[in-house]
Amino acid sequence: MQSTAHSFSANVAAALADPNLQDSLAKLKVGFSERRRQAAERLPEFEALRDRARDIKNHTLANLDFYLEEFERKVTALGGHVHWAPTAADARRIIADLCKSVGARTIAKSKSMVSEEIGLNEHLESIGVEPVETDLGEYIIQLRHEPPSHIIAPAVHLTKDQVADTFFEHHKKLGFTKRLTERNDLVAEARYVLRQKFIDADVGLNGANFLVAETGSSMLVTNEGNADLSNTLPRMQIVLASIEKVIPTLEDAAVLLRVLARSATGQESSAYTSLNTGPKRDGDLDGPSSYHVVILDNGRSSVLGTKMQDMLRCIRCGACMNHCPVYGAIGGHAYGWVYPGPIGAVLTPQLIGVEEAGNLPNASTFCGRCESVCPVRIPLPSLMRHWREREFERHLTPRPVRQGLALWAFFARRPKLYRRATALANRLLALFGRADGRYRSLPLAGGWTRFRDFPAPQRGGTFHAQWTRHGGTRTKP
Amino acid sequence: MNAGRSQILDGIRRSLRRGELSGDARNEVEQRLAAPPRGPEVARAQLDPSGKVALFCQWAEANNATVARVAAADVPAEVTSYLARNNLPARAAMAPSSQLDRYDWASQKMLSLRKGRAEASDQVSITGAFAGIAETGTLVMASGPEHPVTLNLLPDTHIVVLSEADIVAGYEDVWARLRARYGKSRMPRTVNTITGPSRTGDIEQAIELGAHGPRRMHIVVVRD
Amino acid sequence: MGLIEPKFLQNRAFCAVERLLRRCHGGAVSTLFPAGASRPKRVALFVTCLVDLFRPSVGFAAIKLLEDAGCSVEVPPLQVCCGQPAYNSGDRATTRAIAAQVIEAFEGFEAVVVPSGSCGGMISHHYPALFEDDPALKARAENLAARTFELTAFLADVLGLQKVAARYDGAVTYHDSCSGLRELGIKQQPRRLLASVEGLTLREMTTPEVCCGFGGTFCVKYPEISNAMVGEKSADVAASGADTLLAGDLGCLMNMAGKLQREGSAVRVRHVAEVLADMGSLPPIGEAESGKSGAGR
User: Fold this and answer.
1) Please, which residues have CB within 8 angstroms of residue A447's CB and are 6 or more apart in sequence?
2) Would you tell me which residues 65-104 of chain A have a C-beta closer than 8 angstroms to some C-beta of chain B?
3) What total number of domains does chain A contain?
4) Stated pTM of the model
5) Which range of residues forms the domain containing residue A406?
6) Under 8 Å between Cβ of A296 and B7
7) Boundaries of every domain in chain B
8) Which chains touch B (3+ CB pairs under 8 A)?
9) Which of A47, A248, A377, A460 could make a disulfide contact with A54, Cβ separation 3.0–4.6 Å?
10) Second CATH level (architecture) for the domain B44-223
């Protein structure tokens, strides 16, 4: 997917000015967080499960090569195939070749953020294969030629009216001539349209929440059941997953499933969990004849063993963005690429470079709400701070910021000089007048005073000046 | 592609600053795979059998399934009655399973059943279930000649006949049953866990049922 | 001088448990506050750069509260800043230099008290990790971290203060500053102390725990996003029906005051220390001496 992360400023301005988006975000901010809170409250073991989930992921990452090989062994033993894709281009090529090998004309897709990451749809279209998104949200944005704005609710930025307009425009040619207004009618129309696509599809492509090494199974959760249809009806099944999706055992899956749905939507369990192990067996009346798993690296193996490794624990639940006040103000598209919100701020610079995506880890107050709800306890603010350190080291921080910081640091490291400077600053600020206690505007502080008044310093000088004046200063013991 | 495979595995090992796992380290992970450790136990489902059944029914209903608890002899009549009270045709695709053969379907003269997989035109399906999970009101379906997966997904209405004896506490108990039936580390082609009808929240974050899978799910819980 | 595992003492819940254990067991749970010494006497105040420059009354209020509770307070002269602006900008070298200064300046005091959750959190949560490569300095950082406390947490959890002698006639709403809340577990402590203030009623906002949009340099680097966040916060304040907004961090307070006043709100904004220290009649943040409140025109 093409990145617009470099125009973060413009993206933000557009997002803040978009009334439909702001309406949708208002709902999102309250809805998801309240439901997650209730789900966590209902389960006394929730915190212990989070700790365990984190530990399972850490253990797996430390032994990732072993578990990937074990997974491959099991899949192959069942008559399935594992394909290793070091880069996005490799993954595209492998999938395109698989489609060509069965003369595929359409491919039904279910829930794969990784497929966005590698730009799969454009590539398939270029070789004459039509990708059809079956997740309702993904389907809607596919019709609108928009990228997803959330990792589990891709169309969360849209209002019902916008969806109605989109269906009216695109379903006309299929014989639907009425613009619908009710949600259930919209869902019913999409179901009807997509049902035929499932049936006609030659290939089904799914993402995966987990790849279970013990059994060679891929696991995907949905509420709609589209993944189960796309991995049953077409004659070829492709699973596309990144390397860190592998987990050791079914017992580990149970722990992760328990924290996944609750963290994502506040549900005790998603409606469907699909555990697929290989192609159809002798005697099966339905199912794909071939089963392929494409395992993608695309820059993840180089994160292992570094300070950033914790980002690979992510199970793609979306809790971080549901609770992030920055995401809640600007929505997902403003982040400019596949993964938005706090996890996006950490992952995007890793996958597409910090020069392109540098704004993302900077646009955070480090409030820490994301970390407090992450089911696998990823220290997201710390990871964002690491990116800021990398930018600083590489002189990518904007010049004025660097210079301002250097000036401040010069004084901060020299306390006696600092005292004189602050006393001076205190008097200077008085010169700008403090008649009613605040400034409507202040030189060098336009960013602040554009939207807010700036409180003036209290009378009487700095604290230290007053403390000294009243003889309060004592030396060290 | 072997080149891609080496590239990825070598990249991982380089980052972890070691070669391929061997010796004690390898034994440890192999042991862990062979005897998978469980996570924290969820207390709420650790109940006696009747408690588990009640919990299952409670959660299933909370997730928009309807539940009827009946004796074995009354299963076919309950199905006929359910279809009638919901104005549905007395016609269904049924799983060719020995589980379901136990019931006297022939007693329902008006009920027309076709055994096999589901087709797009089927409005109702009837299946058994491999297990029910009390913790979350979840049904577990294991694919095979006796349980085609399409029956779980294509029709608008899915009727599931579940024995009380097959209701277990949590996922871990399901895995134990799967291993007992299919062998350790061997799985059927698909295991679907299903919690209530299909749904979506993709339009304005409000839930609508019947996104792609069934809109209606009726669970007949059978006393043995 | 025993070095306590800092993680325990950074868990504010542990402080409360520790007091309880000491009462039950009568023995030393930690070597920092050994049995027999009932409370730390010699306390150092970490003023914070914002309090120093913009609102010294917060520092004086903190001193008054500590002295009233039986501590003697000193203000080490060579303190400037906790280093957070450099830390969050990725300048680790400057952060370490400033942190080393702070460690040096505050050596030897039984406790260091800070009228700010973010500065308190910086010292107690982030200092040790700055010195992974310098074991001696790391040990001193851990030692400092273990004896650094945010003001209300120190009063309520360490000193066991139940009430203050103060009066404030008004309906107050309390904003939970992020670092204080999530790094230091500060939630009930200010509320318990405020509940003892005569004449004061507490009206909670719908989401007191959501970030106000200050975030240090964030508010000037991303002013539109910051504005969106503080706009929501000011709407929440207004909806609470309170006439006064309190918090424990001056950065947050200045941000929220600035927005409220730009919007013409009559809500007065103060630091919680001032109200607890019975200094609630000082001109609020952003208002003048002669100040009638609501002078937003």
Assistant:
1) C219, C220, C221, C223
2) 65-70, 74, 83-86, 90, 94
3) 2
4) 0.93
5) 399-469
6) no
7) 2-34, 44-223
8) A
9) A377
10) 3-Layer(aba) Sandwich (3.40)
